[in-house]
Amino acid sequence: MLKGVRNAVVLVWLCAALAVSTLALGIQALTLSAQVATATASASAAALRHRKELAKAVSKARAKARLRRMLVAVPVLGTGAAVAFEAQDFHDWQTDNPEGSFADYSCDVAELSAEVVDEVLQDLPEAVRPSRDLLLGRLPDCQTPA
């Protein structure tokens, strides 16, 4: 009978040890899953932030090029080319912003143009450089919704 009790105690101890081990491994698996989910979310957020920063940099480069085209527009042919370039830029912008209107496009262009106007003016010879206020005064006045 003592042998039977001893075997029963060993079996109970073994079952308890296995149950505790299973519980500990389950908790560790949940913890690691949470860490993976956090890392994945962080990587996704960083990728999205990078895409937005890249899109803004591309938009700034386009605004700078647009300002250069407008500054060197030759009467008639130059103006026609500038209008064609602007129409193409609006079409490209509308592809990325299907719900946007021409007024929204104008406000985006004005905002980006205001950011790069100093860079563009520094690239021009001083003899033909218009004043900063003259250029900024021609940009549309956009109100951001509160």
Keywords:
rod-shaped; mainly alpha; 146 residues; 0% strand
Description of the structure:
This protein has 146 residues and is mainly α. The protein has helices at 2-71, 77-96, 102-123, 132-138. Helix 1 (2-71) packs antiparallel against helix 2 and helix 1 (2-71) packs across helix 3 (102-123). The longest helix is centred in the N-terminal third of the chain and has 70 residues, at 2-71. The radius of gyration is 33 Å and the shape is rod-shaped. The model has no long low-confidence stretch (mean pLDDT 84).
SSE topology string: HHHH
Discrete helix count: 4
Shape: rod-shaped
Question: Gap between N and C termini, in Å?
Answer: 84 Å
Unreliable runs: none
Number of DSSP E strands: 0
Q: What is the radius of gyration computed over CA atoms, rounded to a whole number of angstroms?
A: 33 Å
Sheet-strand content, in percent, reads: under 5%
Percentage of residues assigned to helices: over 70%
Report the biggest beta sheet as strand number plus sense, adding barrel if it closes.
none
In short, what is this structure?
With 146 residues, the protein is an all-alpha fold. It contains four helices and no strands. It has helices at 2-71, 77-96, 102-123, 132-138.
Which helices and strands appear, and what pairs or packs with what?
Blueprint: H1 2-71, H2 77-96, H3 102-123, H4 132-138
Helix pairs in contact: 1-2, 1-3
